[in-house]
Amino acid sequence: MRFGTLDGRLVLVKDGLALDVEDGSDVNAALGRFDELVAWAATADFTAGKAVTDAELGPPVPHPRQVFAVALNYRPHAAEAGFQAPEEPLIFTKFPSCIAGPVTEVTLPPGKPDWEIEVVAVIGRGGYAIPRSEAWAAVAGLTVGQDLSERASQLRGTPAQFSLGKSFPGFGPIGPVAVTPDEFADRDDIGFECRLGDEVVQHGRTSQMIFPVDDLVARISAVCPLLPGDLIFTGTPAGVGNRRNPPRYLQPGETLVSRVDGIGEIRQTFR
Q1: Which residues, other chains included, contact 112 with Cβ-Cβ below 8 Å and sequence gap of 6+?
Q2: Peptide bond into 176 cis (omega under 30)
C-alpha cells in the first residue's frame, strides 16, 4: 500500500490516482488505526480516485508530533566525518515545522547549507518499549527524506546545535508517498541515491545501516513513546558536502533529487 496526502488529507495512491481516505482529515489519527486502514485499502475502489502528480502531493505526514533523526548511522559517513562508528544510536530531533512535501522550493539561509539523503520511517500504531521482534509492526511505511542541514548553525557552540541547524523552513522534505514494508522484496535492503544537478553525490543501501529500522524503533521507544505519524530519519551515507575537499554547499538555482527504490523521488530547488 502507498499512502500520502493531498490538500492535507490522507489518500491512497496507485497508478497515478489518489483515493481519499474516509476520516482522512486527521492523518495522525488515521495512522493510529492502521490495521483498519490496511483492511479498507484491500477492497478500495480506485475508479473514484483523482489523477495526481508528485508535485501535487504533500508530505505523507504533514504534522508529526515527534521527528527523530539518527547521526552517523552508516560507517562510511562516520569515517568521513572523522568519528568512530557509534556503539549506541546518536539521536537528535528535527523540529516538526521543517517538514515539507516532495517537490518544493527552499530558501537557503546564510551559512553552509548541505544535503543528506535519508530513508524515513513513518510510525503507524506506535507504542512504548516496543520489543525489536515487534518493531516493524509499528511502522506504517517508509518514505524518501532529506535531512537538509545548515552546517554553521549545526556546529556552532560546544556541544553543537544539531537540531537548530537542521530545522530551517523546508529542511525536512519527505514523500512523495510512504510505502508499507510488505511492498519491498527485502525491507532491510533498499537502495537509494541523491543527485545534485547531474552528479550523483550520495548512494547506498539500508542494509549498510549500523542500527537498522527495527533496532531504532525498539531503542527510541524504550525512552519515548512513539506516536502515530511520528517520523524517524534513519541516517545518511557518505558524500555530504561539508566533508568534500574542498567543501561544497548548496547554491541558489541548484536542484537536488533524492530517490529511494520502490518509493519514488523528491525534488528540491534552492533560492
Answers
A1: 150, 151, 152, 241, 242, 247, 249
A2: yes
Give Dmax over CA atoms of the chain in angstroms.
57
Between 56-60, 86-90, 145-149, 154-158, the lowest mean confidence (pLDDT) is in 154-158
Instruction: Kindly report, residue by residue over 174-214, the tens digit of the pLDDT.
Output: 999 999 999 999 999 999 999 999 999 999 999 999 999 99
Residues 136-156 have pLDDT tens digits of 999 999 999 999 999 999 999
CATH architecture of 55-270: Alpha-Beta Complex (3.90)
Torsion of CA 26, 29, 33, 39, to 10 degrees: 10
Strand 172-179, strand 139-146: pairing:
antiparallel
Average pLDDT over residues 237-246: 96
How many whole angstroms separate alpha carbon 256 and alpha carbon 254?
7
The residue extents of the domains of the chain are 55-270
Query: Is residue 117 classed as helix, strand or coil in its secondary structure?
Result: strand
**CA gap 117, 225 in Å, rounded:** 26
Q: What is the CA radius of gyration of the chain?
A: 18
Burial of residue 15 (CB within 10 Å: 0-12, 13-18, 19+) is exposed
For residue 2, give the 3-state DSSP assignment: strand
Which of 143, 146, 81, 74 shows the shortest CA–CA distance to 117? 146
Amino acid at 57: L
> Alpha helix locations (H) across the chain?
27-32, 34-41, 75-80, 151-154, 162-165, 213-221
pTM over 0.70: yes
